[in-house]
Amino acid sequence: MKTSASKASPVYLVASGDLRLSANQKCWPEQAKMEATLTRALAAEGAKVVRAHPFDRAKQHGFIDSQARGMEVFRTIDPAAPLLVAESVWQYSHHVLSGLTTHRGPILTVANWSGTWPGLVGMLNLNGSLTKAGVAYSTLWSEQFTDGYFKAGLRQWLRTGVVTHDTSHVQDLARLKLPAADEELGRNWARAFRQRKAILGVFDEGCMGMYNAIIPDELLHATGVFKERLSQSTLYAAMQQVDEAEARRVLDWYRRKGLRFAWGTDEASELTEAQTLAQCRMYIAALRLAAEFGCDAIGIQYQQGLKDLAPASDLVEGTLNNVDRPPVTCPSTGQVLYEGEALPHFNEVDECAGLDGLVTYRLWRALGFPPENTLHDLRWGAPTAATASTRTCGSC
After folding, report:
1. Is 279 inside a domain boundary?
2. H, E, C per residue of the chain
3. Is residue 196 located within the same domain as residue 289?
4. How buried is residue 60: exposed, middle or buried, by Cβ count under 10 Å (0-12/13-18/19+)?
5. pTM as predicted
6. What is the C-alpha to C-alpha distance for residues 274 and 351, in angstroms, rounded to an integer?
């Protein structure tokens, strides 16, 4: 039972981070700065903050960096105490999800609105996981933690254990009245989509602890969509079967289209020609495996495992989502695979984005629209003197 976050009792603070040591070390200074600002905001409201896990001098960061570490930390926290999850970075939700599912005190997730690291995206991912798990929580975000909206929400949480947001802009779908012809078109299309059925090719489910990104099979089946669970190991093995000539044909296609590559020579910090050729191999291998298993859309996790073997899959993902893309043939028949079509890709095997992307692709096709789409997060945006600046993630 969630109770008020009384000012008399300390507010425990936890911070979930990445699994990768290098990412945690690089992002820690921004997290430390955010926590200091947040602590001052809480102190101004008369609340005392207790960090539930210390800075690790050996690792040089203060994040919870694994599910096992998260369980250790939560064993030391009073389950009835008010708890704040502070995020200024991308984080793996499963690091703290186990502890939050059994925490009885009020929970507040907080993120900064910043273009440095995607803290807001990390928090929203955690929020989605908490919502799916049926855990009650409140949430706030701010740029400097000094604005009136944030301070009023924080004050309410400390007093009552919940934050109430204005949701008057949200309307019940049942109240929306569509033109009769449009409604009939939509219903007929959806009926045909479900009857035809489709396959999502999932290259290793559950990227980066995104519990919220896994659709339970029994719910997905009701839409007419089914999963083909594939392995990134298979994808890597298939990459090894692609010769350099094939990879170079894909690279040449990009360059003819005007794509310029800012290649360097340091494999650790720069994009190199060899890495780009490996991405071209991944593109070819992904299409061939998708065709072999009859997939209508695929998602490549990239993180655990594949990140240690191959360059990032972003170029592959963006290319797959386009109708106009390098042709790939079946090695045994010579047939061009998915000719004239995109192969919708859902970034980081986010199955929710996969279902949405496939529906959007087919519906737009049926309506005569260009069908290319990609569904992922808009990480940050801010007005500048002349324009608006935004940052996105993955294959956007």
Report:
1. yes
2. CCCCCCCCCCEEEECECCCCHHHHHHHHHHHHHHHHHHHHHHHHCCCCEEECCCCECCCCECCECCHHHHHHHHCCCCCCCCEEEEECCCCCCHHHHHHHHCCCCCEEEEEECCCCCCHHHHHHHHHHHHHHHCCCCEEEEECCCCCHHHHHHHHHHHHHCCCCCCCCCCCCHHHCCCCHHHHHHHHHHHHHHHHHCEEEEEECCCHHHCHHHCCCHHHHHCCCEEEEEECHHHHHHHHCCCCHHHHHHHHHHHHHCCCCCCCCCCCCCCCCHHHHHHHHHHHHHHHHHHHHCCCCEEEECCCCCHHHCCCCCHHHHHHHCCCCCCCCECCCCCCECCCCCCCCECHHHCHHHHHHHHHHHHHHHHHCCCCCCCCCCEEEEEECCCCEEEEECCCC
3. yes
4. exposed
5. 0.90
6. 31
Domain range for 335: 179-392
Tell me, what's the pLDDT at 373? 86
My answer on whether 141 and 81 are in the same domain is yes
Q: Tell me, yes or no, whether 316 and 242 share the same domain.
A: yes
Q: Is the torsion defined by CA of 175, 177, 180, 183 positive or negative?
A: negative
Are 206 and 305 in contact, with CB atoms under 8 Å apart? no
Return the closest-CA partner of residue 15 out of 31, 37, 39, 36. Answer: 31
Three-class secondary structure assignment of 104-118: CCCEEEEEECCCCCC
Q: Residue 39 has what pLDDT?
A: 97
* Predicted confidence (pLDDT) per residue in 379-392, tens digit: 566 666 554 444 45
Please give the tally of structural domains in the chain.
2
Residue type at 331? P
- Residue 396 pLDDT: 42
The verdict on residue 3 lying in a domain is no
CATH number at residue 211: 3.40.275.10
Residue 202 counted as domain residue: yes
For residues 227 and 155, state if they share a domain.
no
Name residues of the chain where pLDDT drops below 70: 1-8, 376-396
Q: HSE of 280 in the Cβ direction (CA atoms, 13 Å)?
A: 23
Task: Tell me whether residue 88 is in a domain.
Answer: yes
CATH of the domain at 133: 3.40.50.10940
